[in-house]
Design the sequence.
């Protein structure tokens, strides 16, 4: 059986996308669906390649019993676009970058924005918490929990 493959993408892959990866993995584990999915994250840039997630993001996530264990990596085109079923950006700039990096129209159809899957939050993007305070990290996690739930429901309906 083929797994559904999801790649979450933000700018540097140290706050938002590794959090989305961890939130989704936590949700899949909770629903006993881990064996049906492959979930990863990447950054548009390679500035932080090889580094763990931002310590502040890790601290806020752990308070929700979510562990950020991924190591930052840069998205690879065309490989990642061909491999993953879903390539999900966190904000409008990520979306623009992803469409520019996408090798063809077929892979462009795999691209969507994280907040498109929200059912409770009205945000049009997942804000970058890097230069803000604690409330920014909490907001990111709130949005991601909502969006991951919606994404999983969307995938479920399409299968």
Sequence:
């Amino acid at each position: 059986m083929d797994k559904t493959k999801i790649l979450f993408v933000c700018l540097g892959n140290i706050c938002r996308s590794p959090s989305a990866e961890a939130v989704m993995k936590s949700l899949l584990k909770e629903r006993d669906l881990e064996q049906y999915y492959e979930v990863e994250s990447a950054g548009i840039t390679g500035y932080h390649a090889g580094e763990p997630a931002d310590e502040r993001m890790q601290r806020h996530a752990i308070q929700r019993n979510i562990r950020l264990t991924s190591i930052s990596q840069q998205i690879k085109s065309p490989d990642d676009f061909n491999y993953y079923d879903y390539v999900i950006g966190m904000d409008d700039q990520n979306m623009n970058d992803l469409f520019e990096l996408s090798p063809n129209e077929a892979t462009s159809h795999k691209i969507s924005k994280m907040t498109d899957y929200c059912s409770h939050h009205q945000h049009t993007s997942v804000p970058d918490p890097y230069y803000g305070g604690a409330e920014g990290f909490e907001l990111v996690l709130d949005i991601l929990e909502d969006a991951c739930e919606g994404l999983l429901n969307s995938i479920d309906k399409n299968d």
